[in-house]
Design a protein that fits this description.
With 424 residues, the chain is mainly α. The chain is built from 15 helices and no strands. The protein has helices spanning 2-15, 21-51, 60-63, 72-81, 91-107, 118-146, 152-180, 182-202, 210-217, 224-229, 233-260, 265-319, 326-354, 360-389, 391-423. Helix 4 (72-81) packs antiparallel against helix 14, helix 12 (265-319) crosses helix 13 and helix 12 packs across helix 15.
Length: 424
């Protein structure tokens, strides 16, 4: 009887291997240090500068900090090839880049967001984006290498949840600026970036996966050409461009839209975090649960179906003479944000699956480069479209762009998975 029970335990253990929860928590908290600057630059700054009178046609300036991020595929060859083995191949990049970024973002405290300082702020953010790009490459490779296949849905969900928490803080920066002032807010935000990275800095880096060790033993270096020639890259890379373009085309103009509708700093500082909590934390938590029950394709499809509804709701708000009560806006925007985020988080889970563990930094950064190219194009053109044609045209166009990428993902998901499995 005991032998039978032991056999069952071994069988269960083989089917459901144990998860390293401290490792997953460390990876998730580390990603918080990445999400804040992205949300701050993408959500808070557009609202603040629109309040200062920046024309929509000039919003391409605020897209410049995303430009260095689409060159990550070149930086990844350096990050993937060089690192201190004693400190950790990934930590030897994460530690100095995080410290440099903390100092740089603290410097923003001395330049309040107004039209006189916009060029200085953008220059600081562009330089910060170069540093954070190197950190992103190391962090994403760290996560892709450290997470086992059975840990990936939970690990990615935790990353998304805590990333959403950091995004809430980034979105809430609008209200914090109104309450505590620009300087205090930026100093506090810089400290948050450091605190989020500390667990990963102190924890011993896991041993690289077998595929990486085999590559190193053969004396091979990460190969960008090899990654580009893979069959699945013909699907993944164009999709990643559309994924970045669609999501950020809409996101870039949300803050300016509400500013034009007459919303105050405090009101937006409440609305943005409220929608980020439901669209980020709740959606990130439920996405793996839905995937287990209805598959990745159907979970993504649920989010895509809501996109035209979201566009119609924003068009309706643009016709109103006055802003609806804040509680109505919170409920409406939060529900829309939750639904559309199901698609975003499903794609995020797929991205960690698509990279090769033999050169995780290069592969993931190649995806990120195309995604960030889409983000930069979105930020550079969204204001022009909204300024020239109005929000009634802008929101349907934004929904259509996201739908094109989303339908491609749903239709080609199985083909990509088959190619990835064949490669591994």
């Amino acid at each position: 009887m005991r032998a039978s029970l032991k056999g069952e335990e071994k069988k269960t253990s083989a089917v459901n291997p144990p998860k390293d929860y401290p490792k997953l928590a460390t990876l998730s908290i580390l990603h918080m240090a990445q999400y804040f600057p992205i949300t701050f630059a993408g959500v808070a700054l557009p609202f603040l500068f629109r309040q200062e009178g920046l024309p929509l046609e000039m919003f391409w300036l605020l897209a410049l900090p995303s430009f260095p991020r689409w060159l990550k595929f070149l930086m990844a060859l350096v990050v993937d090839n060089y690192g201190n083995e004693r400190i950790g191949r990934r930590k030897s990049w994460i530690i100095p880049c995080t410290l440099a970024a903390v100092v740089l973002y603290a410097t923003l405290a001395f330049f309040p967001p107004n039209l006189e300082s916009i060029y200085i702020m953008v220059s600081i953010l562009v330089f910060g984006a170069v540093i954070m790009s190197a950190q992103d490459i190391a962090v994403d490779a760290y996560a892709a290498e450290a997470m086992q296949d059975h840990e990936r849905p939970l690990g990615t969900s935790l990353i998304n949840v805590l990333g959403a928490v950091s995004s809430v803080v980034g979105a809430a920066a609008v209200a914090l600026v109104d309450t505590f002032g620009w300087q205090n807010t930026m100093f506090a935000a810089s400290a948050l970036m450091l605190v989020a990275a500390l667990p990963a800095m102190l924890r011993k880096e896991p041993i690289p996966p077998p595929a990486t060790l085999e590559r190193l033993a053969r004396g091979e270096r990460p190969d960008l050409i090899k990654a580009l020639k893979r069959k699945e890259s013909a699907y993944i890379l164009p999709f990643m461009f559309m994924f970045g373009l669609g999501h950020h085309f809409l996101l870039t103009m949300i803050g300016p839209f509400w500013s034009d509708q007459g919303m105050s700093l405090t009101q937006y500082g409440i609305l943005a975090p409220a929608s980020a909590i439901t669209g980020g934390i709740l959606a990130a938590t439920l996405t793996p649960w839905l995937i287990e029950r209805i598959s990745m394709r159907f979970t993504a499809g649920v989010g895509l179906v809501v996109l035209p509804v979201e566009a119609a709701v924003y068009c309706y708000f643009s016709f109103l003479d006055a802003i609806p009560p804040l509680w109505i806006l919170i409920v409406t925007i939060a529900a829309l944000s939750f639904s559309t985020s199901l698609y975003m988080y499903t794609v995020t889970i797929s991205r960690f699956r698509w990279v090769s563990k033999a050169q995780a930094g290069t592969d993931y950064s190649m995806q990120s480069s195309l995604w960030n190219l889409g983000v930069w194009v979105a930020g550079s053109t969204a204001g022009l479209v909204a300024g020239q044609f109005g929000y009634v045209v802008f929101f349907p166009v934004a929904a259509l762009i996201t739908l094109v990428g989303g339908v491609f993902y749903v239709l080609k998901w199985q083909d990509i998975e088959d190619l990835v499995l064949e490669r591994e």
